């Protein structure tokens, strides 16, 4: 029996994920500019919601799935869910760290950490490069993440290695 928290989907619409990353990018920039504890807390809670339950309780994900993707006619490109969940976990670490730093008055460090998050969100949103997914793939390749965690990843990402 495999331990699982929440109900993250096995597959994700790449266009919805990129739209969420766009929202994260914009909120990160706004948060850096305003240095608002409320905004960085909202950012961290959004990542927590997506890590635990995928799009179910995430306002950004719901907006992306039900408004942005259909209105822009982006369609569906299905990608494996576990790498995206891993990437959301990394986002949670960065946004949580930024929240702690800002709470204790480390303004420069807060800006740096949230700036890094904004850069990686921009890479995913605008260029389609998910750094967390890339790292997840490497961890699978090196045997640090068991292949059973993501069977779809085995078929898509590492098919040339079989």
Automatic annotation (TrEMBL):
Residues 12-140 form the DUF4395 domain. The chain crosses the membrane at residues 20-48, 86-107, 114-137. InterPro entries: DUF4395 (IPR025508). Pfam families: DUF4395. Keywords: Membrane, Transmembrane, Transmembrane helix. This is DUF4395 domain-containing protein. It comes from Leptospira fluminis. The lineage of its organism: Bacteria, Pseudomonadati, Spirochaetota, Spirochaetia, Leptospirales.
């Amino acid at each position: 029996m495999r331990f699982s928290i929440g109900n993250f989907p096995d597959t994700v619409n790449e266009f919805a994920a990129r739209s969420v990353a766009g929202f994260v990018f914009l909120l990160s920039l706004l948060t850096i500019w305003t240095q608002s504890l409320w905004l960085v807390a909202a950012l961290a809670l959004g990542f927590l919601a997506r890590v635990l339950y995928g799009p179910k309780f995430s306002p950004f994900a719901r907006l992306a799935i039900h408004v942005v993707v259909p209105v822009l006619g982006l369609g569906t490109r299905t990608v494996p869910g576990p790498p995206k969940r891993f990437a959301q976990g990394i986002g949670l670490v960065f946004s949580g760290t930024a929240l702690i730093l800002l709470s204790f008055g480390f303004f420069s460090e807060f800006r740096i950490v949230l700036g890094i998050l904004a850069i990686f969100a921009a890479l995913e949103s605008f260029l389609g490069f998910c750094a967390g997914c890339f790292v997840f793939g490497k961890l699978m390749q090196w045997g640090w993440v068991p292949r059973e965690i993501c069977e779809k990843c085995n078929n898509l990402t590492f098919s040339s290695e079989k």
